[in-house]
Write a structure and sequence with these properties.
Strand order of the largest sheet: 1-2-4-5
CATH class: Alpha Beta
Structural class: alpha/beta
Bound molecules: zinc ion
Low-confidence stretches: 155-162
Number of strands: 7
CATH topology: Collagenase (Catalytic Domain)
Largest sheet: 4 strands, mixed
CATH superfamily: Collagenase (Catalytic Domain)
Number of helices: 4
Mean pLDDT: 91
Helix content: 25-40%
Length: 162
Amino acid sequence: MALEVTVKTAGDVPIPDHSFEAERNQYHSTKILKELVRGAPPDSLKVLGVIEKDLCIPILTFVYGEAQLNGIGALVSLARLRQEFYGAQPDDDIFRERLHKEALHELGHTFGLIHCSLVECLMYLSNTILDVDRKGRAFCRHCQRALNSKIEPGRVSKWTGR
Ligand SMILES: [Zn+2]
Ligand SMILES: [Zn+2]
């Protein structure tokens, strides 16, 4: 097991205009994340946004995603997960594998997990698509244990609205 929780698909969330960085032709992930969290259903344990747009933050040329450490919000961009982005033929299996890894990585942060030095672990930091591809598709024992302690019944953090 990696992360066993009930998942509900919510509707589309509009991308806030002020998140567009015209000079970079990218979107500021932190601003989108904020909107995502604000619009989350009140009973949400966590909310995961999936976006087509390429994301960035001021100090990085791009990010695959962003999450609130110990918060509820996580955001993943599909833009750089597709083979086409790198000039290769489309490959749905590779695309899904990358999305699986990056979505669980960002959700891991919302459960308080920080980056892990083990390349076999989902919480390994990916700076390039090669990092995404070579890291494992599960949490290492240490990270899984930390995660389990956060999702034990009764220890689930309550929605606070912020
Ligand atoms: Zn991370
Ligand atoms: Zn780990």
